[in-house]
Amino acid sequence: MSAVDTVMWRGDADRRMRSTISMVEIYDTEPDWDRLVAAHDWGSRMAPRFRQRVIESPLHTGTPSWEVDPDFDLHYHLRRVRLAGDGTMADLFTLCEQLAMTPLDSARPPWEGYLIDGLADGKTAYLLKGHHALTDGLGAIRVLAQLHSTTRDPIPGKPQPAPPVPKELSALDVLTRQVGEEVRRVPKLAEMAFDGVRALTDPKKALSRVLRYGRSVPRVAGMISPPGSPLLAGRSLSWRFLAFEVPFSALHAAAKSSGASVNDVYLGGLIGGFRRYHEKMGTPVETIPVAIPISVRKPDDPEGGNRIAVGRLAGPVGIDDPFERVLTIREQVRAARGEPAVDVLNAIGPLLAWLPGPVLMQFSGTTSQNDLQASNVPGIPWETFVAGAKVERMFPFGPLPGCAVMATMITHSQTACLGINLDAAAVTDQDLFADCVVEGFDEVLALADGDPTGRMIRVVD
Length: 461
Known about the structure:
Layout: H1 3-10, E1 20-27, H2 33-46, E2 52-55, E3 65-68, H3 74-77, E4 78-82, H4 89-101, E5 111-117, E6 124-131, H5 137-147, H6 171-199, H7 203-220, E7 239-247, H8 248-258, H9 262-280, E8 288-295, E9 308-315, H10 322-337, H11 344-352, H12 357-366, E10 372-380, E11 385-386, E12 389-397, E13 405-412, E14 415-423, H13 430-445, E15 457-458
Parallel strand pairs: 4-5, 8-10, 10-13
Antiparallel strand pairs: 1-6, 1-12, 2-3, 5-6, 7-14, 7-15, 8-9, 11-12, 13-14
Helix pairs in contact: 8-9, 9-10, 9-13
């Protein structure tokens, strides 16, 4: 397990820091159960991480190990439930948030899948719930793209890898791996030291680089972030899910007209929603602390694990003009991506992993107090099917590691699907907040030249 994954995994010791990620898919019909089971069996062989469990180190320091679960039982991981109530989308998301809040079994591969029958109009839903240590958003999409089909009918001739061979790790095996990793780090540290000595041939340049990096670290670590909003100060163990959709063409048109990226427009809509919510609740603020993930994943990186850095923004809630807000965000995002210390967490991660659990949790808690964490993950741009059912929508929901609101957007076919997980103690009027998010997006979508090509809607019925 990588050092960043270790921080996420051990964060579960604090119930407020659980790193469960969820994906809710909506199918146009009920998939064939036997094919669905077979697809999960095949998928877990194509992506062996889903057959692996976490083995902690004997001293609970250093990075844990992944091992193939000798007792892997698909019957445990894949479940079938029926939706209560009238089968509305609101009923569905209530069930999904309850399932997402239930902790994963740390003695098994950390994921569960639920086929949910009973949606109105003959539709069916599927919830995939897993620990963030399994993978980041981009890695999850790579896995989903591989596991989804391009046709309703079975595709013959698919590769059929054998199940991974279980190998139980002993405490000595884990310690040996940890020591080996530290030994392999020595040449890298020596190379860094050599580079440092060589840099002294130009001491002015070396000093400038050190100072720029040193000034960057507090910004990246969130030590000089704006204060959190008093309106959103509450924290609890209660998650609430909100889902929205908007035509991707509308986001693209607004981005093109404003000279920004789709991600800038997305953040502008979210922060516009926060502005309206604060105004209607009678507590206006100028800025809020915002965190965005910055992918450092390379094409040849393995699909498992997390390859992300953190960017920090001062969310311009006080800017009411949507054009100015989007451009302000654009410049902040560029600055965050260009921070010299942007990858500091991955750099110091191996050291953090050796901290005792309580100390590591204290560090995690002090660096995660954001009012908003928002990510935008490129999705699957073509139609997909699962066991004979067409995937109509994919709504992602991230965890709440100390933040008030976690927003995640993914594009499926031509629709941008937005999933928001919010802390019920921070956002006390969830329906009002949802209305404000829609209004915030409508503001930025109106930046498109000519008539807007679409509007955001909340998914409730």
